[in-house]
Amino acid sequence: MTALPPVIPVRALREALGLTLDDVVARIKDQGEMASKSGLSNFEAGVRQASPRLALAYCRALGVDRHHISQAREQRALVAASTPALDAAA
């Protein structure tokens, strides 16, 4: 079986790289895309879903492959989906 790459929450990755939201907005705008600090904050928190185009620009701004990131919304869904399985195993 092939090992899957690790999936990292976007905010944690940005912070680990030492980047601020302002840094990422500037990098996205350098790519010719529109972005705002509040929009990216909502994307990172899982409040709003980014368009595929913005998500790709975000990944490029951080220098990562899009398959290595996840939104907070996806993380919550994974935890919720695994909870019944954990209860059934006990």
Could you explain how this protein is built, in words?
With 90 residues, this protein is mainly alpha-helical. It has one domain: 434 Repressor (Amino-terminal Domain), CATH 1.10.260.40. The protein is built from 5 helices and 2 strands; from the N terminus they run βααααβα. It has helices at 10-16, 21-30, 37-45, 52-62, 72-89, and strands spanning 8-9, 69-70. A two-stranded parallel ribbon has the order 1-2. Helix 2 packs across helix 4. The longest helix has 18 residues, at 72-89. The protein is globular, with a radius of gyration of 15 Å. The two termini are 27 Å apart. Residues 85-90 have low confidence and may be disordered.
Structural class: mainly alpha
Kindly identify the CATH topology: 434 Repressor (Amino-terminal Domain)
- Parts with pLDDT < 50 across at least 5 consecutive residues: 85-90
Computed over alpha carbons, the radius of gyration is 15 Å
- Kindly, what is the distance between the CA atoms of the first and last residues, rounded to a whole number of angstroms? 27 Å
Structural domains: how many: 1
Q: How much β-strand is present in the residues?
A: under 5%
By CATH reckoning, the class would read Mainly Alpha
What string, H for helix and E for strand, traces the elements in order? EHHHHEH
Total beta strands: 2
By CATH, the architecture is named Orthogonal Bundle
Which of globular, elongated, flat, extended, rod-shaped describes the shape? globular
Largest sheet: 2 strands, parallel
Mean pLDDT: 78
Order of strands side by side in the largest beta sheet? 1-2
Discrete helix count: 5
The CATH superfamily bears the name lambda repressor-like DNA-binding domains
* Helix share, percent: 55-70%
